[in-house]
Design goal:
4 strands, 25% helix
Length: 91
C-alpha cells in the first residue's frame, strides 16, 4: 500500500483555495482521505495551501494522473506529490 500526499496551492488566478473543487475531484477517485489546511510558499510567495493524505492501492502512475487532473482542475502550475510504501490498517 502507498501513502500519497498531494500539496495543493491556491488558485493561480484568484489566490483563493478551491477546497470544494478539490474534494469534488478527490471523491471521484478515493473512498477516503484527509485534508490539512495551512500556509505554503511557492516561488517565495505565501499562499493558502492544502495537504491531502491518502492511503491507497493505486499505482504511482495512477496517482500521477490524478495529480494532473488536480493541476488542471484547480488552475495550478503544478501539484507536488510524494509517495511512500507503508503499512495501513483500520482498527
Amino acid at each position: 500500500m502507498l501513502e500519497c500526499r498531494f500539496y495543493v496551492g491556491a488558485d493561480n488566478h484568484t489566490g483563493n483555495p478551491q477546497k470544494e473543487k478539490l474534494v469534488e475531484i478527490l471523491n471521484q477517485h478515493f473512498d477516503g482521505y484527509t485534508t490539512l489546511s495551512g500556509n505554503g510558499y511557492w516561488q517565495g510567495s505565501p499562499e493558502l495551501s492544502t495537504v491531502v493524505i491518502i492511503h491507497t492501492d493505486k499505482t504511482v502512475a495512477e496517482l500521477r494522473a490524478i495529480a494532473e487532473l488536480l493541476k488542471i482542475g484547480l488552475n495550478q502550475d503544478c501539484i507536488a506529490m510524494t509517495t511512500i510504501q507503508t503499512d495501513f490498517e483500520l482498527v
